[in-house]
C-alpha cells in the first residue's frame, strides 16, 4: 500500500516551509544563544493559522479545511529549521488548546479558545511533578473545594508555554478527593495566569530547546472558581492520557523534522567538504551514513503520518479505533524520536570537528534531540504501551 499526503497537504507544507525559512531560520541560532522566546514570531504562527488547524471555525480555527495531519505537517516543517519553535507549536495546540476544546464547557471554550486559536495567547499543560513523571497517578498537587472555589496547592515541573508574556492559563491535574479503595481522585483545573498564589518560577537552563518557554510552577492557596473544573470530576487522569496519545504523534512529527534537517545538512556538507581532493560524499563511510539518514527519515515519516491518518479517520467517523491509534502513536513516537537522536549523532559525525562547533546548526539539533525520547512519554513507556497492545501484561 502506498501512502502519500494529499495535494492540499503538500501545498500547505510549502507555505509553512516558506514561513519557516523566512521568519525563523535566520534567527534560530541567535535565539538559541540568547535563550530568547520570540513572542512576535509565535504570534505570527498564529496569524498563519497554525494554532487553529484542529479547531472549529466558530473559534477561529480551520474547521473542515484543517486536520491532525495538517498539524503534523506544520510541526515537521517548523521543527526542520528550529526544534524550539516546533515544540512551541506542538504544545500550544496539543497540550494547550486541545484539552479545552475536547473537555471544556461551552463557556470555557468561548472564554479561552479564540485567543489561543489565534495564537495571541498560549496555554500550558500541568501534568508532570517532581515525584510524578511517567507515574502520573502519583500526583501530589491538591485542589480542595471551599466556598465555591478550588484551592490549589502543589507544584509542577517541565511545563512548556507556562510562563511567557502571552501565557493566559495552565490546566493542571490535582487530587480532588479519594476513591473507594483508597486511590486518588484526579481532576483537571484551569488556573489563569495572574491568579494569586500561582507562580511560574524562573525558566529552566536546559540542554536544548533554548528558545522554548519552560518553567516549574508552584501553587500556594491559589483560588479559582469551581466552574474552572475542566471535564468531569475524577476523570482528569484519563483526559490527560488521551491528550498524550495525540501529543505522541505530534512529537514524532517534530522528530521527523529533526531527521530531515540532519539529512539536508549532512548531504550538503558531504558534497562540499573535500578531503584528498574529492568530496567526502564519495567515501563509502560517509555515503553509507547519509544513506542511513534517508532510511530513518522515510520510515519515521511513514509511521508518523500513518498514525495521523488513523486519528483523522476517527475524527471523521470513517474508520480507525482508539486501540489502533494508541498503538500507532506509541510506535511512531518510539521509532521517530530514537531515530532523531541517532540522526543527530550521525550528522555531527559527518561534519567531524565542525559538528562540535556551535556555529554549525548541527550542534544545536544534537542538543535539542535528546528530550524527544523523554517528553510526552519516555521510550520505556512507549515500549510498555506497545507490549500491552500486543497482549503482554507488562508492568
What descriptive keywords fit this protein?
Butyryl-Coa Dehydrogenase, subunit A, domain 1, Butyryl-CoA Dehydrogenase, subunit A, domain 2, 4-stranded mixed sheet, 395 residues, 3 domains, 4-stranded antiparallel sheet, Butyryl-CoA Dehydrogenase, subunit A, domain 3, 10 strands, single chain, alpha+beta
Q: Mind explaining what this structure looks like?
A:
This protein has eleven helices and ten strands. The two termini are 35 Å apart. The longest helix is centred in the middle third of the chain and has 37 residues, at 236-272. It is an alpha+beta fold. It folds into three domains: 7-122, Butyryl-Coa Dehydrogenase, subunit A, domain 1 (Orthogonal Bundle), CATH 1.10.540.10; 124-236, Butyryl-CoA Dehydrogenase, subunit A, domain 2, CATH 2.40.110; 237-389, Butyryl-CoA Dehydrogenase, subunit A, domain 3. Helix content is 51%, strand content 16%. Strand 9 (274-275) and strand 10 form a beta hairpin. The protein has helices spanning 7-24, 28-34, 39-47, 68-81, 83-103, 106-117, 236-272, 284-316, 322-351, 361-369, 379-389, and strands spanning 122-126, 142-146, 149-160, 167-178, 184-192, 198-200, 214-225, 229-230, 274-275, 278-279. The mean pLDDT is 95.
CATH A-level architecture of the largest domain: Up-down Bundle
- Side-by-side strand order of the widest sheet: 1-4-5-8
Helix proportion? 40-55%
Characterize the largest beta sheet: strand count, sense, and whether it forms a barrel: 4 strands, mixed
Q: Which structural class fits the helix and strand makeup?
A: alpha+beta
Number of helices: 11
Q: What is the number of E strands?
A: 10
Strand proportion, as a percent range, falls in 15-25%
CATH superfamily of the largest domain: Butyryl-CoA Dehydrogenase, subunit A, domain 3
Number of domains: 3
Order of helices and strands: HHHHHHEEEEEEEEHEEHHHH
**pLDDT under 50 segments (min length 5)?**
none
Mean model confidence by pLDDT: 95
InterPro entries: Acyl-CoA_DH_CS, Acyl-CoA_Oxase/DH_mid-dom, Acyl-CoA_Oxase/DH_mid-dom_sf, AcylCo_DH-like_C, AcylCo_DH/oxidase_C, AcylCoA_DH/ox_N, AcylCoA_DH/ox_N_sf, AcylCoA_DH/oxidase_NM_dom_sf
Domain Acyl-CoA dehydrogenase/oxidase N-terminal: 7-119
Cofactor: FAD
Domain Acyl-CoA dehydrogenase/oxidase C-terminal: 234-390
